[in-house]
Amino acid sequence: MKNKTIAIDSGIILDSNRVKQQWLLINLGLKLDLWQVNKTECEPLIGSETYERMRQEVFSREGILSHPVMDGVKEFFYRFRENEFYMLTVKTPKFIPYIISWLHQNIKSFSIIPKVFTAYDTTKARICEQEGIDIIIDDDIRHLREIPDSVKRIFLKLQQPNKNLEGITQFGSWNEVAEYLDQPK
To answer: What would the DSSP string read from start to end of 116-170?
Structure first.
């Protein structure tokens, strides 16, 4: 696959779910699976105020810069280096410089630093439309559901039981996503 525009949620480049999972265990004694720690799944379990406190700590400058790289993402970038990458997040604009610093620290070896967009005051669907995105990869189903069918929608969710996702393809690892995208169409 070449010459495609691929948008990827920041939380599945930075291993944010693992960091949130650790925060929940340390601060609340709550052991959740990785698939349960995004806003859609987690906020109803711990409440809006606690979720916001976790988000502020996990996504502070220090928090972001200490995130590990998600397993398989560097190999994915390298394998598909002939495509254009965007990082698409819903984080507030104040977090963008921290994310860019993290990218320069962690993804620089492949010279593939994606453009970073925030959908904080818009939608991921609108950015996909404006930027001509061909493929979007996200770990929060609510964002993928708003994306038009003209964009290939990939739900990357570790440890998540399969769901009926109506036009959204689900995978459990970056390697599985890569294998799927490499299949002849």
So the answer is: EEE-TTS-HHHHHHHHT-SEEEES-HHHHHTS-TTSEEEEE-TTPPP---SS-EE
